[in-house]
Amino acid sequence: MAISKEFLWGGATSANQYEGGYQEDGRGLSSMDIVPAGSKRSDIIRGKISDFSIDPNLYYPTHKAVDFYHHYKEDLALFAEMGFKAYRLSISWTRIFPNGDEETPNQAGLDFYEAVFKECQRYGIQPIVTISHFDAPLHLVQTIGSWKSRQMIDYYLKLCKVLFTYYKDYVDYWLPFNEINMILHAPFMAAGLTFNGDEDEEQIKYQAAHHELVASALATKMAKEINPKNKIGCMFAAGSAYPFSCNPKDVWDAMKVDQENYFFVDVQSRGKYPNYALKEFQCKGIEVVMQEDDASILAEYPVDFISFSYYNSRCIASKDSDAELTDGNLFATAKNPYLETSEWGWPIDPLGLRITLNQVYDRYQKPMLIVENGLGAVDTVNEDGQIKDHYRINYLSEHIKAMVAAIEEDGVDLFGYTAWAACDIVSASSGEMKKRYGFVYVDADDQGQGSFKRLKKDSFYWYQKVIESNRDFI
Ligand code: BG6
Fold first, then answer.
1. Nearest CA owner, ligand 1 atom 14
2. Contact 346, 427 (CB under 8 A)
3. Ligand 1 atom having least distance to the Cα of 179
4. Which of 125, 168, 269, 349 lies at a CB distance of 3.0 to 4.6 Å from 120, suitable for a disulfide?
């Protein structure tokens, strides 16, 4: 199997990290709009929040982000210049339904995405749309507790219906939720969940996850009814869990970490709760309330493809080990002594991508799509305006080689790769601007100050050649 000419090379972003324009043209407040940068951020994204107001003394990165709202034409022209075949973006729910519970959508919000999709169409770029990427209407967080409540399914489906109908001529690929497994690690950021002291957090998270899983299945059903061409994919934060040693205790714990992540995909792809999860719920006293037809909904409407983000592998040591910990996409794991780390302490493991691709394909046997992979790093603009991000080129090049080997030598079925990120955006976990991921540099700092001018990095020209040669140039 070689890389097909139709392979979807591209880049990705999310509305809350990229768009800005948080109060423009009728947009309502969303969950991430009240998450400041700085020391409070980490607790808030994990659900420790009781005050939903905006503090004028703090900086909120989503409010302006990198202002895609006013730069979309310029940015899409740059993506087209790189040769993107696909662009993964997310919808800001509150641009369409400002509070989440209105009867009719906000026309200005619909117009904005239509304009974006028209630009994509003009350049022959296939949009891949994440319906909810770390995004819930703040009004629904405050009134019904967001995904804690089953009512959220109806509001979400109302959004889906508008999107599937209105953008029928523009979009064929949809991802109902970004990194659905992140609900366990960053529940406010991922799903708008908050906790007060005496609540059973695990119970709440799995109940909310059940609502998302049912919503995802019903969205799949609806998408196909509205347009049989629609293809729906689940999306999870991937990265295989390696045992820290061959001690069976480490191997066991690593397997449990993998199961915790695969749980979501097992339901979305295989259409039922896996036995290991049901048993674990029983042992822990977690009671997920389900309605009578939930099981048949999950069984009848599985996803068409599996998409995931991959930044790093994880390394798991059993509780009684004294292994050193390291960072990694919101999961702190044991430090893998064989791997270098990024400036933010995330392990760098290209072979881990090949391992993950093989494991995911073995498990589900469905087409796959890598929708996030990239390096967060500090970039410097030289006096002549050049940005020599060879570290990013190295990271991406090694990962793309591993991906190509998985396709050509291992036979995994992968139909696209959208790097994170198409353009510099605000970091989700830290809220920093200086943790840059893009091929396009944006002149803005951690306080939202700057000209917001766009500059091409060296990786821009490199990726352009990779796409043009359909990977030969790596
Ligand atoms: C993924 C998210 O978890 O990782 C993105 O889907 C995020 O939204 C990306 O930006 C990188 O993480 P961070 O925290 O460095 O921005």
1. 429
2. no
3. 6
4. 125
Of residues 311, 299, 304, the one with CA closest to residue 339: 311
Q: Are 468 and 87 in contact (CB under 8 A)?
A: no
CB 104 within 8 A of CB 144: no
The catalytic residue positions are 372
Could you count the other beta carbons within 10 Å of the beta carbon of residue 285? Answer: 9
The phi and psi torsions of 461 (rounded to 5 degrees) equal -70, -35
In this prediction the pTM is 0.97
Segment 212-216 shows an average pLDDT of 98
Cα→Cα distances 52→39, 45, 49, 103, 138, Å: 16, 13, 7, 24, 8
Q: Identify the H or E element spanning 333.
A: strand 333-334
In this structure, which residue's CA is closest to atom 8 in ligand 1? 428
Distances (CA, A) of 341 to 219, 332, 347, 388, 403: 38, 13, 4, 20, 20
Q: E strands of 173-250, at which residues?
A: 173-177, 231-238, 241-243
- Tokens at 138, concatenated: 């703040």
- What is the tens place of the pLDDT at every residue in 135-187? 999 999 999 999 999 999 999 999 999 999 999 999 999 999 999 999 999 99
Which phi and psi (to 5°) does residue 345 adopt?
80, 10
Pairing type for strands 325-326 and 333-334 reads antiparallel
CA-to-CA separations, 2 to 49, 59, 403, in angstroms, rounded? 49, 47, 11
Q: Which two structure tokens, joined as six digits, stand for 427?
A: 């970091």
CB 305 within 8 A of CB 415: yes
- Return the bridge partners of 243, or none: 316
